[in-house]
Amino acid sequence: MQIHASEGSVSLVAFTNMMMSSVDSFILPSLTLYFLVISVFRKEVDEHTMFLYRDLGRKQIFWSKYLGLLATIVIFYGLFFATSAFVHYVRVIHLPFGSPSVFDTSLAESLSNVFCIVAYLLKDILSVSLATALCLYLKNITTMVTGFLVTITMMILAVVGGPVAMLFPTSYMPLASEGLTGAGLAYLGAIGVTIVYVLVFTKITAKKFKNLEF
Fold this sequence. Notes:
mainly alpha; 7 helices; 0% strand; elongated
């Protein structure tokens, strides 16, 4: 990936956002996330090994698995940021466009770059929540195909925009670049949409999980 920027303008946060955007442009990471969810939730059901947790309540099992997946995502983002910081301060700051600053000189730009990183995180949380619901109702291959289509849809709508695009957290990125007010609205919109998805999908999944035959 080539970086085109003015001299001394790429801060750590801006560089991390660039790297995250580059990774997100590939579909494979999202499909890997769906596969991970299937392995955590569906595999034990198909292999009839859920009885191993018979001493635990089903609600406790469900939330342990779900929160474990979310923790995995957060850890990944933490490691990604740490790796980006290492590369930034070892290599990038020695290039003409590199800056040793953590944030951009403009508060609005900093909020926009941070939002983009948060939006990718929210997108993954949404994907995990959706995959959790899908894998308990559909076959594994159907879940993967649906995940592929949803991922493609989010990528396209994030570029095209429009009212429908506001249903996904990554589509608020252009709004986040429209000054402080735009950034504030983007944070509220993306977080609010993700919370709604999480509440709906976890409620559906928890109900289904409760009725599974162990």
